Amino acid sequence: MSDRSNKAPAKKRERKPPTKKVPMPEQDPLERRKNFDEVALGYDAEQAVAEAEKCLQCRNPKCIDGCPVEVNIKEFIELVRVRRFMEAALKIKETNSLPAICGRVCPQETQCEQSCIYGIRNEPIAIGRLERFVADYARAHDEPMPEILDRIGRKIAVIGSGPAGLTCAGDLARLGYDVTIFEAFHKPGGVLVYGIPEFRLPKDIVMAEVEYLERLGVEIKYDYVIGKIRTVLELIDEDGYDAVFLGTGAGAPNFMRISGMNLVTVFSANEFLTRVNLMKAYEFPEYDTPVRIGNSVAVIGGGNVAMDAARTSVRLGADEVTIIYRRSMEELPARLEEVHHAEEEGVHFRLLTSPTEVLGNESGEVIGMQCIEMELGEPDESGRRRPIPIPDSESTINVDTVIVAIGNSPNPIIPQTTPGLDVTYWGTIIVNEETGMTSLPGVFAGGDIVTGAATVISAMGAGKRAARGIHKLLNGE
Amino acid sequence: MYEILFKKILNENTKFMVVDAPEIARVCKPGQFVVIRVNETGERIPLTIADFDREKGTITIVFQEVGKSTKLLGSLEKGDKILNFVGPLGKPTPTEKVYGTVVAVGGGCGTAIVYPVARAFKEAGNHLISINGARSMDLLIYRREMEEISDETYETTDDGSCGVHGFVTTVLGDLISKGRKIDLVFAVGPVPMMKFVSKITAAQEIPTLVSLNSIMVDGTGMCGACRVNVGGQMKFSCVDGPEFDGHEVDYDELMGRLNAYKEQEEISDRLWNESQGGAA
Ligand SMILES: Cc1cc2nc3c(=O)[nH]c(=O)nc-3n(C[C@H](O)[C@H](O)[C@H](O)COP(=O)(O)OP(=O)(O)OC[C@H]3O[C@@H](n4cnc5c(N)ncnc54)[C@H](O)[C@@H]3O)c2cc1C
Ligand code: FES
Q: Is the CB of B128 under 6 A from ligand 2?
């Protein structure tokens, strides 16, 4: 008979304290505030293997379901554990064509790592860091080209070279299609190049991925604004493309409906980041494009874009950089790592605060910003608690530069010039979820242009689905 | 890469270039512009399409050398190539319509931009009056071209060295006070000129179109650098314009925004002049 008192506490099994991820080597915050070099330096082989060894190799792994493109995480980590790094990279590439990028910019904490079973008691396995490690390893060690099927003599036009377009192009090229990407800018990569800064995603990595696509036979035409120089329908009717994929992103910046938005030292995050990243304004005057940065910068918004703008401002030499966000720390939509890095670099956070007016002097420069304090009410449709202004809580903060990072909308150029293309009230293109096809037969779409501003990995997933959809359509399935 | 097929110096700091860009030439319309980048370290700048030849596949650009980027472009010769040439961007001018009497006003280098639009107005069957103004005679451009397409031609110079001594607004004001019936004014030039033209025509409620030369980066609506206040609303010059109702534009704000990078522009310009062996 069991006696409760017999169950001595001493019998309780010793549980090991929760483990943490093998720490990521990083540039020192004080040092990196002054340069644009990459912040996270990446695991070496020993660190990667040590991290991989902790993986439980679950019989029913949950991490894979957490990944929008279903990378076979369990198997690639096992390959890392046994030091077959190149094979690990190829395993990831079976479903994710841009692992060096995803390893760096995916919000793993809300995807694969969130569902990691090991992570229930411990910090989850550092799946993102391992992904980055094997992708960097493969790039440095001449990764073999995948098998390419014979050319089948059919032409596909891909509009936009962001992650959605690059992924769709790569998948179709591998199946033997002749793919041409039309890109409005003079460089490929979309947000990966003009938006996300060098210190978070070195541009060489994006270029390496693009070169890989070119070796697969993909052609890229720059300076091509589709809808202006050529319309989508002309590509099909006159230029002989069998299908078109629209991956044009959500690039049109939103501004606040408050006065002072047109002041000279108010910038959209898009303008600010494009000047710095795409046009290399941080190397002015060697590069001709200028950027203006004041002493005291307010960045409005709480997403990755806001973090990038704030951390870029720090690097350009602003003394004080403050994120102004209308909800609280918990609701910040940015990746955890970016928030953490921004804090380390001295970025201030003024939460539960919303601007009501930007004040300027007679030459149109910002001299301050009036803000109101907020409190959180009931959750809204998005499930986040709705911020409500607190009456009589207005105050003016001293700033000379304001960067607006409150989101982007789809660029209307293509919808406006493509009759018959159905869009939503917000201007996003409507597609069949499974195939990616729009209301126009043979015209597909995916990425931010369909979902509104989202993530790199979801754009890639959409590019993949559309590639499958195109292949099916052209094969009469 | 886009080859320069022909280059002409219109005056000391205004250059005329014909560029090989067949795909843009095939579809562009009067009033649209291109964004160019001369070389790898260059910045992206907008230039209005001054003319085009669909058969030859060429685009003409006319620009005033006001800083490093335009000086760099101006230093290129026939046979040289421009790295990036994006277009046609912006909305075309509605030139097919018959308004009646159209007055085309060009100030300085703006006349080059007025020219193709004015020609289209004329071809559509409008009575065309042109007013071409500059600081002095040697800065007047497109004199013969404007004369050829216009039913009536006026020239003005600030110093009186040619034509009417005064501003384009002197002539425009005269026409209006003489009671000439004017159905549309199209004006391109320095911001103060467009501002005063719009002021005169506003009083008589004469529809007035102006073409704005905002600072741009992408030219496709993705950065907002080009935003202007038109009738109290935020518009992007590159996609909503570059032409707007002259009576609705906030010119003072526009002027401030055009000066946004003055300091940096001066640095670039000084370095360029030094590299060319010129004075600092
Ligand atoms: C600053 C910033 C930071 C971000 N950080 C992260 C992050 O850390 N993690 C993450 O997962 N996501 C992040 N995102 C979001 C992510 O980058 C996007 O969701 C993703 O890039 C969308 O991919 P896309 O291919 O749909 O479009 P985009 O990347 O926007 O690419 C669209 C491309 O199409 C081109 N284009 C547009 N119109 C035309 C036309 N008419 N003709 C020809 N070409 C055209 C554009 O020039 C562009 O190159 C960030 C976004 C920004 C702006
Ligand atoms: S130039 Fe970027 S939006 Fe107009």
A: no
